[in-house]
Write a structure and sequence with these properties.
Structural class of chain C: alpha+beta
Distance between the termini of chain C: 110 Å
Organism (chain C): Salinomyces thailandicus
Number of strands of chain B: 27
Distance between the termini of chain B: 88 Å
CATH architecture of the largest domain in chain B: 3-Layer(aba) Sandwich
CATH topology of the largest domain in chain C: Immunoglobulin-like
Subcellular location (chain C): Endoplasmic reticulum membrane
CATH topology of the largest domain in chain B: Rossmann fold
Strand content of chain B: 25-35%
Chains: A mainly alpha (772), B alpha+beta (481), C alpha+beta (289)
Shape of chain C: rod-shaped
Keywords (chain C): Endoplasmic reticulum, Membrane, Signal, Transmembrane, Transmembrane helix
CATH class of the largest domain in chain B: Alpha Beta
Strand order of the largest sheet of chain B: 2-1-5-6-15-14-12
Order of helices and strands of chain C: HEEEEEEEEEHEEHHHH
Number of domains of chain B: 3
Number of strands of chain C: 11
Radius of gyration of chain B: 35 Å
Largest sheet of chain B: 7 strands, mixed
Protein name (chain C): Ribophorin II C-terminal domain-containing protein
Number of domains of chain C: 2
GO cellular component, one term (chain C): oligosaccharyltransferase complex
Strand content of chain C: 15-25%
Oligomer: heterotrimer
Chain lengths: 772, 481, 289
């Protein structure tokens, strides 16, 4: 495969000792072999650079979603495929439960599951956890290979593919989601994305049903693996549409597109979670529309070839246009009438960044849905980001079908990457490809050892480069040159001075080295921490591991009933389910806004209000994250406003965000805090007994940097059950109803020994006589 | 800890089966002011001892008086006689908190008061925890100028005569446990007012409509403002905590004295003849209820199973293959059974709810989807329990549900049986197949027609011989392909 | 509970009949003083110990009711220990009493406004009037007095309605609940489905007829099988076999049974298909197609 992609034109005018290896049949083989070796080393580098997390910390599943994927994979491995398919999970979203089998993308789990079984079959018993931890790096190796193939389709420079491969291999933008242990859909999805694009380009080029079918196959795999498949679903039609508009409609396009759409749609509908979306939701309507359009255009083309009459063509054209318009109107009608689901909220938030904040706070509350800060681009892509435009420009210079694809991809992806941090992921591949094309152009031009000679100038009017590898550059340049230039008496184009060659080459080399350096640094420092375990530096510079999360989760696992329901904010649902193995009320799969709002209400209301809610949901323990002691800023008090907002969305008259701000609109936790704030369950649970750590009146919150009231909050309906070493996790047990039917405030007051006043027995308002 | 608890439970069980008539235990602690009082209640003591109680007498100041031993209640029951004159409280070993802990630990308390002696503030503050409030001035008593014993209290009118059959109220759906025949005499009773909110409280005996409280020391001339009047005054009050521990407040301790056990009383209403007071029988009922001889209900095994297929309408549960499964599917029929029995004298007998009352099963997630009255039947398998059964279809909503039987009724111990089951959705292969749905036939035929068409097309493609004159075009097509 | 008042009433009826000396009252006047109107605007009624007032007294939210009387034992005015104005709400049977404040000569008065009443009495169910009776009794032997004297109606005040306290929980059987099931999916008329089924089936013969009409035929079967018998046989067979696999999957196979078989059949079809199509190609080149 590698050898076949580039067919070097053996040049005659050369006689170096290496000639034998560099020319003719043997030369092709040598280069093929070299390429293979280089690719393998690239893959190795890609994998190796992702093992930092394992070396720095341990072989552990990372942050949040991976924990669910891990749990689901274990379920798949233990109970078999069909049990997984029909899985009703009664340990999340208590008491609603979740039809997990039908609401997840099974690709990831099934992949690692089959790897597991394959290894067992090969008598290599490997722990499923290790497979899950190492799946992402393994896939990154494949991604590098796929991007090599992809780029090789784009430019016929032999080095472009390899450059793209290594860029893709070590670009932080992709590493951020694929280090060892981040066992997430993206890990495998990016490989599928790139490979599907490769197959698509191949199909468009060759115009064969087989490639189209393969595209559909891998598209189906992609659908089963990641919700981001919608990107492909809209990008390929867009490509086809643009080509048609450019008047580049061809049987090749027709065959490849129709094949892909028909088979791909069928394949995608096999995933329960997707089901009938491809024909019901607007996100997929573009593909359908273009499918219809290709049919029309195809018919028109055929007719035109049959009867070449001028008026008839215009008739055809207008007919096509008319039908297209009618179809579009029909689609709009269907959408309005509700047969076709309107665009999903997440989609809107892509176009209007303010949309989510107003309409869907849940989505807005997710950190990775925030708009990207511009330094992130440089941080994640380093020098590629400025090579990227050059590469896109190169595409314009030679605008074949596949280059059009790159251009479209580049435009869309860079917009999306600007809107959402996490979509940096979809940008990275195209950046790598474009940058590789630009760089390879430079290298091909400047890495030619010998100067062009006069005599063969007329035979090849470009820099007649002797070495076979560069022989093709002549054609490339000639094709690259605008016709206007070439029409003039062809000048001698080429680099003569070794100085400039060495200068440029040196500069590029140093850039590449810097790039590698940057990537390594970013990977090891920024993207390798499994946010389950926090690392901090001691004064002497040595690393200190803060392991409160696991400490608390294992406490739950070992000290509570297996059926004890744990209420926490949804961020920690997956981890509790995965590490503590306890039922949770809400988790990171935020499918039920109302349920999350209920938890938000319980957290942000007074105890008397929260207690009935917790009792109704059979809550046994409440878990809060508190960073005040350590200065850990990602704690619940900082997330508190989101809980309030989400709750306010459902109960606008019971929970009001305004009540949590002081008169001057500040969000405070010290003695200036509003009564609503200080009476909220979350506040009480966070700061309960906190000032016992400090001398009287000295209690200090290191995150908010504010001094706390002298007398801490009092709790009556819950009691402290566990607090982790650094107070990051605090677990409270919900009390049972009072045995004597009192409310908990009175009960605790009585236990504290102060007598109840007679007046408290008398109820305010009109007296009420006892009726039996 | 668990070990000792287990042991004590075991012992309690043994004792209760062997000797005591109480369903809980026989150790009864009696706290009285001094030994001299003891003689006044001799008949009462003998009644209790005949019923198998082991009485221990202590005075509040007794150093070895302690409600707990090794953190466990030292006695199953406690009988508190009113403390003597001028005592501030019940002493250091009977503080309100200790008594509340004692009750929370499941033990029962009978507290008797007297209008003759002033009530310590500790007692009234303890009672406030039960939402029972006593008159503010410490020594007040209930009088009724319409229903008094004209033979003993011709002048003072402070011996109330009340019909015994009203004891425990005569409400529909409430078990009639405490009513006795004849007339009760309650001398120098202290009336209490019960909070309206608490469902744990019940007034066993209310004062007559014309009764009122006054302070015999200060309000000789007449009452200007009264604490409470009429049937808002509760003379005998029953409180049953959530853990079924019982607390009874008897307004008039004299009613238990020998003097009032076998005396004849005469109602103040003219023409009413004198008769024997029914105090003794009432005292037995009252102590019987307080000390868990009466109105004790317990739940036996709970079973539920899928009432479909092979095990449909199974009467003999032992033949069931899959009993008490942890997961069901929506829209399936389920059979539920719970065994209830009640304590009678010295053994368990089948329980039957009082008239116009029913044991109810809730099938609930967040809120009940079903609430069904269970039909009582008896089973030959277990002669001393009655089966309460229901058969119903699970709701068409998946989730984590509870079979929940919560039977809380006045004067009966609480039953709370919760069984959690998962109700799952249809699995992918549990829907009706397409060939049993008439509406699917067009689609099925569509598929197989296409298949046939495809095969036909292949055959045509492979084996069709063209007419001669169209050869050219065919070839051109072939080239173009 | 209902019994006790009746006992009392019986008792007192007897006493009034028999006992010579008994408690009673005289020159009693009832005044309903409206806060708005002055001294003049007050309703006055005389109460007699024997017969209750014929028409009910209305007491609206802002008014205050006042009764002045002289309690008598026999004929002499004396102060009784108990002199109550008792209000009785017939539906719930709740009773609330207001003691008279008395002097030694038996003169006394009681005054209250609706705000002094407990909730249940202050807002009785509409159309229900409170039974007001005066109750005079004391220690000793003389017969007590308890008579219904008038009925009191309390019109609900529109401007400040009383806040109803939440109904207290009492343990009792609750009403039954039965889950309402969603209606199943609607089916189209069977006739329609059968009609369409046959319509679709009809397309197959139509297709055959049209193709034959356009000159489609299987004339080359012999030639093809002559040239490459194995290839053609296996290819066509594998095509049919693949459909068979699909059918088996539809009937009852699961993925793990289907996929391997489908894979094998597919490979066979691929290989043999290649051969067969080359044979077709040869024919085409020969112009026989």
């Amino acid at each position: 495969m590698a050898a076949s992609t580039t067919a070097p034109t053996a040049s005659t005018a050369s006689s170096s000792p290496m000639a034998f290896f560099l020319q003719g049949e043997t030369g092709r083989n040598t280069r093929g072999l070299l390429r293979l070796i280089i690719l393998c080393t690239i893959a190795a580098a890609a994998v190796a650079s992702r093992l930092f997390s394992v070396i720095r910390f341990e072989s552990i599943i990372h942050e949040f979603d991976p924990w669910f994927n891990f749990r689901a994979t274990k379920y798949l491995v233990n109970h078999g495929f069909y049990a997984f398919w029909d899985w009703f999970d009664d340990r999340t979203w208590h008491p609603l439960g979740r039809v997990t089998g039908g609401t997840l993308y099974p690709g990831l789990m099934v992949t690692s599951g089959s790897i597991y079984h394959l290894l067992r079959f090969l008598t290599l018993p490997v722990d499923i956890r290790n497979i899950c931890v190492l799946l992402a790096p393994a896939c990154s190796g494949l991604t590098a290979f796929a991007s090599y193939l992809f780029t090789s389709e784009m430019s016929d420079s032999p080095s472009a593919g390899l450059l793209a491969a290594i860029f893709m291999g070590i670009a932080p933008g992709y590493i951020s989601r694929s280090v060892a242990g981040s066992y997430d859909n993206e890990a495998i999805a990016i490989f599928l994305l790139v490979f599907t694009f490769y197959l698509w380009i191949k199909a468009v080029k060759v115009g064969s049903i087989m490639w189209g079918a393969l595209t559909a196959l891998f598209y189906g795999y992609m659908v089963s693996a990641w919700g981001g498949y919608v990107f492909i679903t809209n990008l390929l039609p867009l490509h086809a549409f643009v080509l048609i508009c450019m008047g580049r409609f061809s049987p090749r396009l027709y065959v490849s597109y129709t094949t892909w759409y028909a088979l791909g749609t069928l394949a995608s509908m096999q995933i329960p979670f997707v089901g009938f979306l491809p024909i019901r939701s607007s996100d997929h309507m573009a593909a359908l529309g273009v499918f219809g359009l290709t049919q029309l255009v195809g018919a028109a083309e055929y007719l035109r070839s049959q009867l070449p009459s001028k008026q008839f063509q215009t008739v055809i054209r207008s007919a096509v246009l008319l039908i297209f318009v009618v179809a579009f109107g029909g689609l709009v009608l269907l959408t309005v009438s509700g047969v076709v689901a309107p665009w999903s909220g997440r989609f809107y938030s892509l176009w209007d960044t303010g949309y989510a904040k107003i309409h869907i706070p849940i989505i807005a509350s997710v950190s990775e849905h925030q708009p990207t800060a511009w330094p992130a681009f440089f941080f994640d892509l380093n020098m590629l980001i400025w090579l990227f435009p050059a590469g896109v420009y190169m595409c314009f210079r030679k605008l074949k079908d596949e280059q059009v694809f790159i251009v479209i991809y580049a435009v869309l992806a860079s917009y999306f990457a600007g809107v959402m941090v996490r979509l940096m992921l979809t940008l990275t591949p195209v950046v790598c490809v474009a940058a590789a094309m630009a760089l390879s152009q430079i290298l091909d031009t400047f890495l030619v050892a010998s100067a062009p000679t006069e005599n063969d100038a007329d035979t090849k009017q470009a820099n007649g480069t002797p070495a076979g590898a560069n022989g093709s550059i002549a054609d490339k340049l000639s094709s690259a040159l605008p016709d206007t230039l070439r029409s003039t008496k062809s000048p001698l184009v080429g680099i003569y001075s070794y100085l400039s060659k060495s200068l440029i080459t040196g500069a590029i080399t140093s850039y590449l080295l810097l790039f590698v350096l940057h990537c390594t640094w970013v990977t090891s420092n920024a993207y390798s921490s499994p946010s389950v375990v926090l690392a901090s530096r001691l004064p002497d510079g040595s690393q200190h591991i803060i392991d409160d999360y696991r400490e608390a989760y294992y406490w739950l696992r070992q000290n509570t009933e297996p059926t004890a329901k744990v209420m926490s904010w949804w961020d920690y649902g997956y981890q509790i389910g995965g590490m503590a193995d306890r039922p949770t009320l809400v988790d990171n799969n935020t499918w039920n806004n109302t349920h999350i709002a209920t938890v938000g209400k319980a957290m942000s209301s007074r105890e008397e209000v929260s207690y009935p809610i917790m009792k109704q949901h059979e809550v046994d323990y409440v878990l809060v994250v508190f960073g005040g002691l350590l200065g850990y800023s990602g704690d619940d008090i900082n997330k508190f406003l989101w809980m309030v907002r989400i709750a306010e969305g459902i109960w606008p008259d019971e929970v009001k965000e305004r009540d949590f701000f002081t008169q001057r609109g500040e969000y405070r936790v010290d003695d200036q805090a509003t009564p609503t704030m200080r009476n909220s369950l979350m506040y009480k649970m966070s700061y309960y007994n906190y000032n016992s750590l400090f001398p009287a009146g000295q209690a200090m919150d290191r995150v908010r940097g504010s001094k706390l009231p002298a007398d801490g909050p009092q709790l009556s309906t819950v009691e402290e059950a566990f607090t982790s070493e650094n107070w990051i996790i605090r677990i409270y047990k919900v009390k049972d109803f009072d045995n004597l039917g009192r409310n908990h405030q009175d009960a605790t007051a009585f236990e504290k020994g102060n007598k109840r006043k007679k007046t408290s027995a008398k109820r305010r308002g009109a007296r009420v006589l006892r009726v039996d | 800890m668990e070990m000792r608890l287990l042991l004590s439970l075991l012992l309690a069980g043994l004792v209760s089966t062997v000797a005591a008539l109480s369903a809980q235990g026989s150790k009864l602690l009696v706290v009285l002011e001094d030994e001299s009082e003891k003689s006044r209640y001799s008949q009462f003591w003998t009644d209790l001892e005949d019923r198998g109680f082991q009485l221990t007498y202590r005075t509040p100041k007794d150093p070895q008086l302690s409600l707990f031993r090794h953190g466990e209640p030292a006695y199953s029951h406690l009988l508190l006689l009113p403390p003597g004159k001028g005592t501030k409280g019940l002493g250091p070993n009977l503080t309100p908190n200790l008594l509340v802990d004692f009750i929370s630990a499941g033990s029962n308390v009978l507290m008797a008061l007297s209008g003759e002696q002033s009530i310590p503030s500790a007692v009234s503050s303890l009672l406030l925890e039960f939402d029972i409030s006593l008159p503010p001035d410490r020594n007040s008593m209930v009088v009724d100028h319409f229903n008094y014993d004209s033979s003993s209290a011709k002048e003072s009118h402070d011996v109330l005569l009340l019909p015994g059959k009203n004891a425990g109220g005569s409400k529909k759906g409430v078990a009639d446990i405490l009513s006795v025949d004849g007339i009760l005499a309650l001398p120098h009773a202290v009336g209490a007012v019960l909070g309206n909110a608490s469902p744990l409280l019940n007034s066993i005996i209310k004062a007559p409509a014309t009764a009122y409280t006054y302070n015999p020391k200060e309000e000789q001339e007449g009452v200007e403002d009264v604490f409470a009047t009429g049937d808002q005054l509760s003379l005998v009050t029953a409180f049953q905590a959530r853990n079924s521990a019982r607390f009874t407040l008897l307004g008039s301790v004299e009613a238990l004295q020998d003097a009032w056990f076998d005396t004849t009383v005469q109602h103040s209403a003219p023409g009413s003849k004198s008769e024997q007071a029914a105090n003794r029988a009432f005292a037995q009922k009252l102590t019987g209820w307080t000390f868990k001889e009466l109105g004790v209900v317990k739940a036996g095994p709970v079973t539920h199973f899928l009432n479909e297929g092979s095990q449909q309408n199974t009467s003999d549960l032992t033949t069931l293959s899959d009993i008490n499964p942890s997961i069901y599917r929506i829209n399936t029929e389920v059979h539920y059974t719970i065994e209830l029995s009640t304590w009678s004298v010295d053994h368990w007998v089948p329980f039957t709810p009082p008239a116009s009352d029913a044991v109810q099963l809730e099938f609930s997630m967040l809120s009940p989807f079903h609430r069904l009255n269970l039909a009582p039947t008896t089973t030959p398998a277990n002669p001393n329990a009655s089966l309460f059964t229901a058969t119903f279809t699970l709701p068409d909503q998946h989730g984590i549900f509870n079979f929940f039987v919560e039977y809380r009724r006045p004067y009966l111990t609480n039953i709370e049986e919760k069984r959690t089951v998962t109700v799952r959705h249809f699995a992918h292969d549990e829907y009706p197949r397409s060939f049993v749905i008439m509406a699917a036939y067009p689609w099925i035929t569509g598929i197989w027609t296409t298949v046939a068409g495809f095969v036909g097309f292949c055959a045509l493609w492979l084996y069709s011989r063209p007419e001669k004159e169209r050869v050219e075009l065919k070839v051109k097509e072939a080239g173009g392909r | 509970m209902k019994l006790l008042p009746s006992v009392a009433v019986a008792a007192l009826s007897l006493t009034t009949a028999v006992a010579a000396v008994g408690w009673s009252f005289e020159d009693a006047t009832l005044t309903v003083q409206a806060k708005s109107s002055g001294v003049g605007g007050a309703v006055k009624e005389k109460l007699s110990p024997e017969s209750p007032l014929s028409d009910p007294v209305t007491l609206s939210a802002s008014d205050s009711l006042k009764i002045v009387l002289t309690a008598t034992e026999g004929t002499t005015g004396r102060r009784p220990h108990q002199a109550f104005l008792t209000l009785h709400e017939p539906t719930t049977g709740l009773v609330e009493s207001f003691p008279f404040s008395l002097k030694d000569n038996g003169k006394g008065k009681v005054e209250f406004t609706p705000k002094d009443l407990p909730y249940q009495l202050a807002s009785p169910p509409s159309g229900v009037a409170l039974q007001a009776s005066i109750l005079i009794a004391s220690f000793g032997t003389s017969a007590p007095y308890n008579h219904a004297t008038f009925t009191l109606t309390l019109p609900p005040s529109p401007n400040e309605p009383l806040t109803a306290p939440e109904t207290p929980e009492r343990y009792a059987a609750k009403p039954e609940i039965h889950h309402q099931f969603r209606a199943g999916p609607a089916q189209p008329p069977r006739l329609l489905s059968t009609l369409f089924t046959f319509a679709i089936l009809a397309t197959l013969p139509v297709l055959l007829i049209v193709t034959t009409a356009l000159g489609g035929n299987l004339g080359h079967v012999s030639a093809a099988f002559g040239a490459a018998p194995v290839a053609h046989g296996v290819f066509v067979g594998s095509l049919l076999a693949m459909e068979g696999v699909f059918f088996a999957y539809y009937i009852g196979w699961n993925l793990f049974q289907t996929l391997p078989v489908a894979g094998v059949v597919g490979i066979v079809a691929f290989v043999s298909g290649g051969r067969a199509l080359t044979e077709v190609q040869e024919r085409r080149v020969k112009g026989e197609r």
